[in-house]
Structure to design on (340 residues):
């Protein structure tokens, strides 16, 4: 009888050992999953960028540019989201990246378009993760522990909020306004909701160093959505217009190797065309024209009027006909030739 009792005790003890080992294996498996997820993020699977990596190069600093950037940085210091508004090609993106880099905090870049929804901003479930632990602690017993769980992936907005980064949301108004409902509580209450995520971590408290810079074209541009007033009330708007002639010369000169007198002629013509044409003639058009002239102009005697008109026509033609030859392009060239 004593032997039977001893045997039963050993069996009970053996069951307990195996149960404890199974629980320990489960905890170890969960810990390993968390470790792998953290390692993946550290190894570059993250939208975070170092400030020096996003600083625009070249970036021209003139009194006019410094004045605008100082306004942006001042509002950021006041903990206000900044919305840069202005015509295409006027340098909004460069200003936003420069102001973000100056803060010395990590930067998260996000580009707006019709495909951006709430999940693209805050994150979503991305399939399941399976981890298996094999246990042969007890001789003759092969035990396998499997853990399967849904894998949640944070997208740029969640990462920026959690890490205290500067979010640069470029072309913000090209995204569907419904996607931006999550920004209301973020900017007003300092809390980011992550719809679709369950549990206590459904929300993220905003890091005190988080800041946001939004850029968008004026509302009359094609593909631009009118955003809800409730959101616009929570941001400050800084309007960016085309720069003065001196600043545009500095910008073109920083991007293209061209004699100064030819840069003066390109910028002067750009500003005249901006006043006379019904299409957008931005600083980017001046840079592209100067690049074209650096290739096509082989004369040492300046720029021939016909060549200048041809290059400007090539640069601006897509704005009137999508680049196809036709009456619109012919009329454009005639008007450019008259200006030149």
């Amino acid at each position: 009888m004593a032997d039977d009792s001893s045997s039963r005790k050993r069996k009970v003890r053996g069951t307990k050992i195996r149960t404890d080992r199974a629980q320990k294996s489960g905890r170890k498996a969960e810990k390993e999953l968390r470790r792998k997820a953290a390692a993946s993020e550290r190894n570059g699977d993250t939208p975070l960028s170092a400030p020096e990596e996003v600083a625009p190069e070249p970036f021209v600093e003139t009194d006019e540019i410094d004045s605008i950037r100082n306004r942006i940085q001042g509002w950021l210091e006041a903990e206000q989201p900044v919305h840069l508004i202005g015509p295409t090609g006027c340098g909004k993106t460069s200003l936003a990246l420069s102001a973000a880099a100056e803060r010395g905090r990590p930067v998260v870049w996000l580009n707006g378009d019709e495909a951006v929804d709430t999940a693209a901003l805050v994150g979503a479930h991305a399939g399941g993760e399976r981890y298996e632990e094999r246990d042969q602690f007890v001789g003759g017993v092969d035990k396998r522990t499997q853990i399967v769980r849904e894998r949640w992936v944070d997208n740029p907005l969640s990462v920026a909020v959690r890490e205290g980064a500067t979010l640069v949301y470029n072309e913000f108004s090209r995204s569907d306004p419904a996607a931006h409902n999550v920004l209301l509580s973020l900017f007003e209450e300092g809390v980011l909701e992550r719809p679709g995520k369950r549990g206590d971590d459904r929300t993220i408290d905003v890091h005190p160093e988080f800041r946001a810079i939004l850029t968008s074209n004026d509302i009359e541009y094609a593909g631009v959505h009118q955003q809800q007033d409730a959101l616009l009330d929570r941001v400050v708007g800084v309007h960016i217009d085309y720069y003065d002639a001196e600043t545009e010369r500095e910008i073109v000169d920083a991007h293209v190797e061209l004699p100064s007198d030819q840069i003066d002629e390109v910028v002067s013509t750009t500003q005249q065309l901006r006043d006379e044409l019904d299409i957008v003639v931005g600083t980017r058009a001046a840079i592209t024209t100067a690049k074209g002239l650096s290739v096509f102009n082989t004369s040492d005697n300046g720029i021939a009027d016909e060549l200048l008109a041809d290059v400007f026509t090539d640069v601006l033609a897509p704005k009137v006909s999508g680049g196809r030859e036709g009456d619109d392009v012919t009329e454009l060239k005639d008007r450019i030739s008259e200006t030149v």
